[in-house]
Amino acid sequence: MAGGFRPIQDISGNSYTGKIQTFAVASGHSTLIAVGDLARITGTANANGLAEVDTAATAQTLTGPIVAIDYDISDLERKGLAAGTAGTVKVAVDRDLLMEAESSTTVSLDDVGSNADIVAAVATASGNLVNSNMTVNTTSPGSATAQIRIEGIKDAADGLSTGTTMFVRINESTLGVVGV
After folding, report:
1. Which residues, 6+ apart, have CB-to-CB distance to 145 below 8 Å?
2. Which of 46, 145, 169, 171 has its CA 20 to 30 A from that of 58?
3. In terms of domains, do 73 and 130 share one?
4. 53 vs 61: CA distance, rounded Å
């Protein structure tokens, strides 16, 4: 599985219902944006008053994962949102959203309940695919003020004590109080 953050359900176990909000992306953003990248509200708006987001960096508060990039009638084959290109994206904004994500290293069952920052790697394009490369930095989880909270390990269900695919949620959010 590639990197990126994928909504799967809310923390109570209910299915993901697509609680999304449309945000603008300014033409000044400097990297390729992909579905699965974590976004952060920038504190500005476009000419129509639509709040703007950009991809999040390590140690920034998070708004949510990008779940769609709106089409552009002048470029119907667009994959991702290229650097320097304005557009709009859909971001999952549910404060209780549980996501699936890859870890930067193997994660121990003892790390569940810990917090970790993200690895804000830039998305890559290959052929017709654009992949998010953002992961969870699990080299030293445990900080109370880190961006992501580890809620479980997906591939540990077969009795293994470690894994690399996790269930996570946002710990440092632009949508409310920090910490879960």
Report:
1. 115, 171, 172, 178, 179
2. 46
3. no
4. 12
* Confidence at 1, pLDDT banded by 50, 70, 90: very low
**Same domain as 85, residue 44:** yes
* Cα dist from 128 to 2, 77, 176, whole Å: 15, 9, 37
Mean pLDDT of all residues belonging to the chain: 88
Same domain, 132 and 87: no
Q: How far is CA 17 from CA 20, 28, 64, 173, in A?
A: 9, 32, 14, 20
Residue 44 corresponds to which tokens in the numbers above? Answer: 């500005």
Output the pTM of the full model.
Answer: 0.89
CB 29 within 8 A of CB 83: yes
The CA distances from residue 168 to 72, 123, 130, 150, in Å, are 32, 20, 23, 5
